[in-house]
Probable S-adenosylmethionine-dependent methyltransferase At5g38780 isoform X1 (Sesamum indicum), 385 residues
Amino acid sequence: MLSCRSGFNLRVQNQVVDPDSSNDVRGGMLGQYVMNGGEGPNSYAQNSSYQGGVIDVAKPILEEEISRKLDIKHISSTFRIADFGCSTGRNSFAAMQIIVEAIKRKFETDGKVMQIPDFQVFFNDKVTNDFNTLFSSLPPQGLYHVTGVPGSFHSRLLPRASLHFGYSCFSLHWLSEVPKAVLDNTSPAWNSGKVHYFGARREVCEEYANQYAKDIKSFLDSRAEELVPGGLMALLVPAVPASWNPNSAYTVLTEVYHLGSCLVDMAKKGRFYEDKIDSFNYSVYFPVPQELKAIIEKSDNYIMERMEILDNPGKRSLTGPKERASYLRAVNEGMLVNHFGTEIMDELFDRYTKKLKASPLFSDPNSDKTILIFVLLQRKPIMFF
């Protein structure tokens, strides 16, 4: 819970629902929120170079670990890979190519060229993800066969013991739901006037941390049923250092804080009712490394083969406040529109850009101290008694 400690004061939720939906935001149900689809100027496809930088830094690690740890002795005619949280595909395609080519080299190095299998890739994201853009953007090389798997990765998605390699990048910070207590005005954890846990009261931080631990456990338990014994899973999780000085650096938490402060400012100016803030919390959580490690180590289903802290070179693609605002809009606009409507979006992100410009920190990408946690897990053999 070190990631909760800061001098800032704010609250979060990515879970906003359509007013016509049966899912009530105050009940904590996750809305049908996804990244901006299509190829337009505000799309995720055009504004995800920050996330794409993860692939560059992870490439040599993925190649090394596949070469060292992948057991190919019992692979039959099809090798199955899944990307959990693929979005519209541009970054996912790069990762899948790296993984497939590394597996092929493993077969070649082991003298099994004639046994190289066909590859099937499962692209998973929420039901409302823009799968049309994903499928229409597929690379032409034909390295693998493609299957779309819509649904929440916090639950089972694939047949038992059918998956050889799991992968998830920049996705596991999303919670399955906003902690119910932070939306309950009778709870000590009610997060009134804020949109995230960053800098909030201890009770709010604890609710978010507990929800995160619960969701990571659900993810790991679901994948344990889907992975074959000995199968591998690579996770790239955005996180924050155990300590950092918000006066001289920023992280993704700072960005969420500033976006939330813009919403609060707009409510105070009468752009919408202030109770809209009280019913809105981002359902995201960014752990510190030891926190994630402790959650994973509680699982009896995996061997942790590697855990490493990485720096994201993609941060250098966000050269200024305007680029940072575009990246954040591509990620968050769907959620914000569901709760606040479309009419305030241009004003909101204009305010956000100006707020970043007013801070000299955001003119220097090297001031971004957000980190990435690389984790490689191996599914333990299933023991029968």
